[in-house]
Amino acid sequence: MDTILTLQELKETIVAETKENRFPYEKGLEKAPFLLPDGKRFEAIDMGKDKDMYLVPEEQQEVFLFRGQGLEFSPCYPSLYRGNPTEPEIFIERMRLIQFSRLLESHPAIIEFFKKYHFHVDVEGLAQHYGIKTSVLDLTSNIDVALFFAICPYDSKSDSYSYYNDGKEHNAILYLFRSDCDNGITPSLFPEQLFLKIHPIGLQAFARPGAQRAYGLHLERGESVKCYMYRFTFTSDDSMHYLDLYRQGEKLWVKDELVEKVKKIVGQNLFSFNLFEETYEKFLPKGFSRRQMKRKLQEMHIKFDKHVKDLIFSDDEQKVIVENWNKNIAPLMANNIVRRRWFNDSNKRRDDLKQLPYTPNIVENHLYMTPKMISNIRTLRIFMNLDPPKDAKWVNYTGTPETRKILSKSHLNSNWQEVPSSFCDIKGKPWLTEEECKIQRSKV
């Protein structure tokens, strides 16, 4: 029988589990919180040559990611695959996603800020946050954000959140993912396995993902979540508290310049032939040639015309966006985008580490965290605590096999790899100036 916790018991359990997964120095620094990340900024992760940098929520090297739901759905599918859609139905949503990506390409902050500094623009993650059906499930590194979505019901007609005011006790679900396991029961221990299925959406040109400390779980058709699950109860007062905490949801469900544009895309049934071709080339629907797919879509009242123009931000809209960005958003970007330096130490003998004061021998100096460094930290954290979270149930709704071997004593006693001695900043520091974060109007 599943353990059912109260909301307070659940939070206490998560706090205890998080502490169990902290390094000794992190536990020591809890008495000096000003030295630790404050949970508001975003750290730039350098993914390597010719790759974008991710702006990841800075959460003291987050251990867990969360997803809150009012109900359990078995299996738990992303919006694109719910209701057993046909290939043509999926293709329509993919066309809307391509239209959405073209809309983003007309946004001044995408053109003149994110691309300029090679910050990753998560098109599908953004589309999911603004109401387009995608193959992404929303996750967050902040448990309170997850609990808000679990216990504050959403009304699609009014596009708003409310609270339970019936005075009764209600039930909800909290999914818990280990960030190093990437939707699996065993860890990913190699840099090339970073962000395979779970991607940080993080800080974007639009407010919702950043406010929600957002990550996205990308799933293929037929795949579902593989993670730990908590069942818990909450009261009407709990629901009202979380609604007030996030100002009736407005702090998380931010209404910005993207909202009205996406509403048009969601209802779009007229597309250009060019957009159809791009969608077909990118997604290659199974069992349909171009001609067959086009004919089927026309039967479903989807129309095509070579004269259809893409939905984009107009010149006037771009001017308004630039003025708002430079006045209100650029200062936030300059303050909230950080990087952590780290360097390798070539001293390898244990005797070196015993000499006080210890002097490292720096051989590599890095301005940004990298997949290699993050993988090393995760590996050490995994071996520090192999136990599953207390009172949690493991769920794998579709029974998909585990592709990585489960850690056992034989694994622990063989095939060891040396993790180089290294040092890194405890928390990131801003490096972009406010002026560098501004958009030049002449380029729009």
Radius of gyration: 23 Å
Low-confidence stretches: none
Give a count of the beta strands, DSSP E runs of length 2 or more: 19
Q: Structural class of the secondary structure composition?
A: alpha+beta
Mean pLDDT: 89
Please state the overall shape, judged from the principal axes of the Cα atoms: globular
Distance between the termini: 60 Å
Helix content: 25-40%
Main β-sheet, in a few words? 5 strands, mixed
Count of structural domains: 1
How many helices does DSSP assign?
A: 16
- Tell me what portion of residues adopts beta-strand conformation: 15-25%
Q: What structural keywords apply?
A:
16 helices, globular, 19 strands, four-stranded mixed beta sheet, alpha+beta, 35% helix, 444 residues, five-stranded mixed beta sheet, 18% strand
Outline the fold blueprint.
Layout: E1 4-6, H1 7-20, H2 24-29, E2 42-46, E3 53-57, E4 64-69, H3 87-104, H4 108-114, H5 123-129, E5 136-140, H6 143-151, E6 154-155, E7 160-161, E8 170-178, E9 198-200, H7 207-211, E10 214-218, E11 226-234, H8 236-245, H9 257-266, E12 270-271, H10 273-283, H11 290-299, E13 303-304, H12 315-336, E14 337-339, E15 342-345, H13 350-354, E16 362-366, H14 371-384, E17 393-396, H15 409-412, E18 422-424, E19 429-430, H16 434-437
Parallel strand pairs: 1-11, 2-14, 12-13
Antiparallel strand pairs: 2-3, 4-8, 5-10, 6-7, 8-11, 9-10, 11-17, 14-19, 15-16, 15-18
